[in-house]
Amino acid sequence: MNLKARSGAACLTLGLTLGLMLMAGQSQAALDQPSRDALRDAVKRYLFDHGDLCMGKFSWPRDVTPEDLSAKTNDAVQLPVLERLGLVTSTNILSTSAATGDAGKRYSLTDKGRRYYLQKKHVTLGAHDRPALHDADFCVAHLSLDDVVKWSPPEEVNGHLQTLVQYTYHVQAADWMADPQAREVFPVADRIIRNEDHLLMSVTVRLENGQWRPVLPTA
């Protein structure tokens, strides 16, 4: 083979190599870029297992001391409303933390209230973002997917591509959350319920074995 022929063969080989590399890069990019349908499936799975709107009342009964009443803690404000709605009942207790010996109250779930105390293990982020495992929580609604609206460009985190997905949702709320006082003492839940189909929620998903899966805290 003369020099000219060899040069042409080399150019052909180089062209094929570059073409294959380009095709491989395009194929990998296509895999790395999530489709809306793939992200819908990931968010649906996430909300099916983790779409409960809960209040962080993990254990019962719950005590409210005179100090809690003075400080207007969440329990001090919310539990009397739940009692009026028939979800909890209270008994007087002697407060061990009150210097005056004033009585506090112990609140327990009624049969109606226990319907909203979901026995489901889940992890929350506590102080300093430390994960904590809980066996149950008091929940007032469940969210399901309306639609995926947008997502961030995927970035590699700990060896996996991740993206932040923003979505709108539907809500199935407890009927008693329509009560004006309940809405007042649970303002965050009320805002989420009232803004169904409009408010954007978000979840981080990552690519694992060709599927986009939600990233969840672990205890």
Tell me about this structure:
- The protein is an alpha+beta fold and 219 residues long.
- The chain has one domain.
- The protein contains seven helices and twelve strands.
- The strands form three sheets. Strands 1, 5, 8, 9, 10, 11 and 12 form a seven-stranded antiparallel beta sheet that branches. It has a three-stranded antiparallel beta sheet with strand order 2-4-3. It has a two-stranded antiparallel sheet with strand order 6-7.
- The protein is elongated, with a radius of gyration of 27 Å.
- The protein starts with a helix and ends in a 5-residue tail after the last strand.
- The relative contact order is 0.16.
Features:
single chain, 219 residues, alpha+beta, seven-stranded antiparallel sheet, 7 helices
What can be said about this structure in brief?
Helix content is 37%, strand content 34%.
The helix count comes to: 7
Q: Which spans have pLDDT < 50 for at least 5 consecutive residues?
A: 9-30
Tell me what portion of residues adopts beta-strand conformation: 25-35%
3D shape: elongated
Task: Report the span from N to C terminus.
Answer: 68 Å
Residues in helices, as a percent range: 25-40%
SSE order, one letter for each helix or strand: HHEEHHEEHEEEEEEHHEE
Task: Sketch the major β-sheet.
Answer: 7 strands, antiparallel
Query: Structurally, how many domains make up the residues?
Result: 1
Count of DSSP strands: 12
Query: Roughly how many Å is the radius of gyration?
Result: 27 Å
Average pLDDT, rounded to a whole number, is 85
**What is the structural class?**
alpha+beta
